[in-house]
Task: structure prediction
Amino acid sequence: MYSEAKTPEDYLEGIADKQKDAVVKLRDIVLENLPAGFEEKMSYGMIGYVVPKSIYPEGYKANPNEPLPFAAIAAQKNHIALYHMGVYMFPEVLEWFESEYDKNVKTKLDMGKSCIRFKNPKTIPYDLIGKLFKKITAEQYIDEYKRSIDK
Result:
């Protein structure tokens, strides 16, 4: 759900109790594993992870005033969502993630193009999410992003 929160901490304050612990833990895992060159900020009403304009001044093509989005965490009405552009832009990362998820998690993967949905907070594979965030550096992401918009 879209939030008017100005900071990630404010966002967390507004989350329903049934999701709060899981979102806090998910955020902690992301922050522990987020490669250099990305930073956390509120983005599109969610806790976002972006390439700041100090590193990639061109910003996001759809809105050049905004930094380049990479990932986000959102507490939705019926699930917790992790949006990760790396699984969308890097087929080998998607393949790795799907394979590791199947090996390590008993529930079926619920996923869109870049959205991973967790309906039961108890089934979030935090260690796997940490490994996912370590897979792509900011430099790799910027390079792939540039290639994708030049097509």
Observations:
- The chain is about 40% helix and 20% strand.
- Residues 71 and 84 are 4 Å apart (CA to CA).
